[in-house]
Specification:
2 copies of one chain form a homodimer. By secondary structure, chain A is α/β, with parallel strands linked by helices. Chain A contains 10 helices and 14 strands. In chain A, helix 2 links the parallel strand 11 and strand 12. In chain A, helix 3 runs antiparallel to helix 4 and helix 3 runs antiparallel to helix 7. The mean pLDDT of chain A is about 95. Chains A and B meet through helix 3, helix 4, helix 5, helix 6 and helix 7 of A and helix 3, helix 4, helix 5, helix 6 and helix 7 of B.
Chain lengths: ~375, ~375
């Protein structure tokens, strides 16, 4: 399959502050983004892709200066791929608070009292709705009055849902994959353990570790290991690692690596702690925790989705996803059906757990291809 | 329901070293234990109760000096209770390596090079089989040639199973509750994250923190929080906490407690870090990881259980237990049935996840009562 090839991130600066759900505001900020494909004459073929916890604006293709830096959804987005860049103009955008280029906690805090130091723990708490507001400004600046679709998986799916509630007239379709209408108590619990691991790491320094020239790597490692367990299904972990040993014989040690799964997890934790920002981890898990459109509608999810009555939805879940199980997607579908909103729902029998949304499963990609084919036809592509 | 009342722990010293599965040995050691009820004339009514990760010899009753110190299985063990101390002589024993009185990492290392310092990280790695060997010596010293039953839940259930393989002639019944024939990759993964949180805590000092007058509380807190999530079912956590907030309004903070579940988990972590030993946590999670009787039999669990052909088994699992799911108990049952071993199996429809084995569920306790009633009759009680 062809790729979009070499891509170059772009940056757009916004001088007007972004009002946030918390009541605070984000002073002037920059969004980093990428685009693939060509915007058509009436600007009707744009698809916005929203990223999840650990991803960025770099959805497809490669960066010239980093061979092997393939975009995180490259198997889905490209020429001839399910989200076909020969027909669509696809936008990937990095959210504020992230650590991949857009304004985040590692950037200078404009508050005069900060004297040019990084935001650190003082970066304002951002929500899914705030991100959507920031994205909407970018889309407007790009000259797009209505998106053909907003697409996201996991936390990205929550952003796609929030678009339909805040800007229903500015998108035709919402494609929400492996997501949920809110976190469960268990989801919040895992986030909280990860956050505790980070903030109790002595190298965290209350979130102002940049000034100390250290990174709370211990906490980040633990956070990533916990996250990773919840991304994989029990079965796929069993199939991939089982009880396989690293060496032929047990060494009987509490600290040595005995099992392959331990080696794999440590490696994932180490890698993550090298590039991910600790404050970003806190901010993004909090955005996950806070997302709860039903709360704003007195606990009634159908009422919450009433503004989206004219949007068309594709909701996709995966049978072995225990982080955001199919039951959570069905809550979304039920709310939409209660509103007589047009929704297609696919529950994909895939073994890979939550991570399935990033993988190339033929049934999953078949559904995505068919849906985007319909969207393309609608917008004359 | 009546309790066994005030109980007094006892201690027994063993001068003969305990050979361990690792090839090392445990020098002279002490086991702390409690007993409830009266051993009958032919010493046929003894039941050994094996403890899990976070428990001890203190199974039932209260300690005179600690009001409210109710034993961890007091709802099951006592006069007129399912394991009836009017009919049985029940023994609870603390395993070596633990932190509740038996010889453990906080005790003096007898190696002359240690110069009287605590074992710390040098405490030898102990396995389920080693614990069973230690327990067998205690049982022998108590003048019991054959136990009426060995009973345990979770890691305690693994010990009960190991008894049937190592000392089949020394027990009549094995009662294995909420357990598994080995840990899955996911189980090992959660243990490994907890261990990494502990050993990377700067206060761990390579396991020799006693000398520094500190305790790796950060790591212990994270370990306990992770453990706690896996003990509860997703549904029971949702029913108990859901998305309930701690205050009426959100405070929009990455570090404040927003949700009740966060408050609960932090409290559990704090409590645990006050009393549990970090080296013990490493040792006990490793004992869990290593337990795998099938490995010794070329991967064939039925072959592994062949020595236990004349033991009778009760295996109990709980529908919402995702740590040791019913499927894992059914593996044990299948291996026993393949050997034509007598086994009763109860899969209890209970909402509480893994923790259900500690709770007073009428169907669960009904099964236990009926089974122990049969055992009592067999031994003439």
């Amino acid at each position: 399959m062809r790729s979009v090839g070499i891509v170059t991130p772009q940056a757009m600066h916004f001088a007007e502050p972004l009002p946030l759900r918390s009541g605070a505001q984000l002073a002037d900020y920059t969004l980093v983004y990428e685009t693939y494909g060509t915007l058509n004459a009436d600007a009707s073929n744009a698809v916005l892709v929203c990223h999840a916890l650990n991803a960025s604006h770099h959805v497809a293709g490669e960066h010239a200066d980093r061979p092997g830096s393939t975009g995180w959804w490259d198997n889905l987005v490209g020429p001839g791929k399910p989200l076909d860049t020969d027909r669509f103009f696809v936008i990937g955008v990095n959210n504020p608070g992230s650590c991949f280029g857009s304004t985040g906690p590692m950037h200078a805090n404009p508050d005069p009292q900060a004297q040019g130091r990084p935001y650190g723990a003082d970066f304002p708490v951002v929500t899914v709705e705030d991100w959507v507001d920031a994205q909407a400004r970018l889309v407007e600046r790009l000259g797009i009055r209505q998106l053909a679709a907003v697409l996201g998986g996991s936390l990205g799916g929550m952003q796609a849902l929030a678009w339909t509630l805040r800007y229903p007239e500015r998108l035709r379709h919402c494609v929400a994959v492996a997501t949920a209408p809110s976190l469960s108590a268990q989801n919040i619990a895992f986030n909280e353990v990860a956050r505790r691991a980070i903030v109790t790491d002595p190298d965290f320094h209350g979130g102002h570790f940049y000034a100390h020239g250290v990174v709370p790597k211990r906490g980040l490692r633990v956070a990533r290991m916990i996250g990773h367990i919840t991304y994989l299904s029990d079965d796929s972990m069993e199939a991939k690692f089982g009880r396989a040993l690293r060496e032929a014989e047990l060494s009987y040690s509490t600290q040595a690596i005995e099992f392959q799964i331990e080696s794999y997890l440590r490696h994932q934790g180490d890698k993550f702690s090298e590039y991910f920002d600790a404050n970003t981890y806190l901010l993004i898990t909090r955005a996950l925790d806070y997302f709860d459109p039903a709360r704003d509608a007195g606990g009634d999810l159908a009422a919450a989705f009433r503004p989206a009555r004219d949007t068309r939805f594709l909701v996709v879940s995966f049978t072995t996803d225990w982080r955001f199980s199919p039951a959570r997607s069905r809550e979304i579908v039920k709310a939409l059906v209660d509103n007589r909103t047009r929704v297609s729902y696919a529950e994909i029998d895939a073994p890979h757990g939550h991570d399935a949304f990033l993988l190339e499963d033929p049934r999953y990609h078949g559904v995505m291809r068919a849906y985007f084919d319909r969207v393309a036809t609608e917008v004359g592509q």
